[in-house]
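Exercise 7. Given the components listed, write out the predicted structure of the assembled complex. Treat all entries as one system.
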Amino acid sequence: MTGKPTLAVWKFASCDGCQLTLLNCEDELLALTDAVQVASFPEASREVVAGPYDLSLVEGSITTPHDAERIRDIRQASRFLVTIGACATSGGIQALRNFSGDLAPLVYATPSYIETLRTSTAIADHVPVDFELRGCPIDRRQLLEVISAYLRGRKPAIRGHSVCIECKRAGITCVMVAHGTPCLGPVTQAGCGALCPSFARGCYGCFGPAETPNTAALSARWRELGAGEGDLVRAFRAFTAGAEPFRKEAEAHDAH
Amino acid sequence: MTHIRVPGLARVEGEGGLEIVTEDGRVTEARLDIYEPPRFFEALLRGRRYTEPPDITARICGICPVAYQMSACRAIEDACGVTVPEPVNALRRLLYCGEWIESHVLHVYLLHAPDFLGYESGIHLARDQPGILERGLRLKKAGNRLMEVIGGRSVHPVNVRVGGFYRAPDPRDLRGLAGELEWARQAALDTVGWVATFGFPDFSRDYEFVSLRDPAGYPIMGNRIVSSRGLDIPAADYDANFTEFQVPHSTALHSVLAGSRTYLVGPMARYSMNSGRLPEAAASAARAAGLGATCDNPFRSIIVRAVELVYACEEALRLIEHYEPPDPPCIDVPPAEAAGYGCTEAPRGLLYHRYRITADGTITDAKIVPPTSQNQRVIEADLREFAAPRLDLPHDRLTWQCEQAVRNYDPCISCSAHFLDLRVLNRTG
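Answer.
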């Protein structure tokens, strides 16, 4: 209608933090809304423009039969579909349910009031996804990069290397080497700016696995630092528990 | 028969709708439908370490993660019989001020003001009045920046831990924020003046307000829960006074006080219970905006939020001026076999956490009651009474006003839907 590319923002099971990151682009928000037509963004606007949409940003994981259907409609209405955040890319913290027994009969007084799936899964488990932006929450600069890239028709310049690389670049003292603090940085994808080590804390993996992560070697190092099997299970089974390399590493220690 | 139905409410955090059914000029049903999928946080916390709830429960809400972190820390420290030193407490309060600023500005400028001015969104508002939204965004950024300096990032800060912080921020970094916060304080005062000019429906009700009480001032954290009908209890007595139960149309549990009483939490309750504790600048801004000692028109809650914004900026400046880095930044909190209780004032109101942990530090039970689930009943009562005398309004107009009546509470549906109390459900299930 306006000739501008259309942007839609969708929510599934999540905390709203990743779509809030879009509103947290305070310096860029008005320029962005000049460049695109915000066609559907219920958290911010009552207005809904009918699809198709040039770019859909999808937050949250699939946890109900209805949502498993809804994501198919959104895929169909979207030229590009980008998932944002740990929930959409790995199932999120709520994917911890995947490793428990069936919680529903335990939890609901009247289970018939609501339908939920046994698992919380990533959007890519249900429909093809054009790009997955990691993070719990996503990083503001990376989000702007992804939106700019799709508006320009190029690939987002986002790397899959580990937190260690950006930690070294920032000149932060290694918390594991210098202080013996267990850190998931060596196997976690960069993007946060090595935040935890900059606060003298070990990385807790909220951006999910880096490319080709050697989780077994890191676990061995953690053991030398005093971590037990339970600590390793909890470390890998947290904010991106459903991501394959972390899921497998947690399983390897859960058997003990 | 009139039927008002908004299947997907916009400008709220999370997924919900509203439905009002009337017959013969009488409202027969007024429902806030919450269909946000539950995420089972209370169940997922079982078996985790007692040090994990600040990071895990932050993920309940991207808009108020600090509230979850603070209530979690306080509850676990309570279980372990530990009280953090004052400098840690002051730094927590400062971080919390950042969240009040960020969250209140989001609601006032982007979610609520467009209703009063007839815009679909803050973005539409910006087309006509770019200066207004620019002020809002800069103000929001001031809150986010404060959270970033203390917590590393504004959504799910990384620096908070049971016992304190991983690293105390450098005083120079905090003092570097003072200039922008001075600007923010003035912008917040201007915000009060701006929202006070809005038109407010003539609507008020006799509410029971529930908030924390802090002898030191306007409440952000504190352990006494008070109400306008005489409730005055420690956080540990929460479960004995408040009851949650499931209703068919919501994945968030409803809550009542003393078995049946509908009550209200959030800015209006905090203000009405504690307006005498506001410092002079915020108090005089409130008076100039026409607020009395209490506020019982929920549409005017936007003024209360703006007044709290003034307070949060002032309090942040005061805390920065007196900032001494806590040394060490955190204290040891050895686990103890016990239950602990923690309450703080999230931007949307009282947020209660309870944990039971074992001697080796494993969580065996968790209960979390967020403000929006507590406000569901009062929202429905408002809808009922608000709609009844306005049924002759054009349908579109009444629908929008009813949506606005829900947005008065800044409902955070993402928060509210994740809580299912295993204890209660086991009993009835």
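Discussion: Chain B touches chain A through 70 residues (CB under 8 Å). The radius of gyration of chain B is 21 Å.
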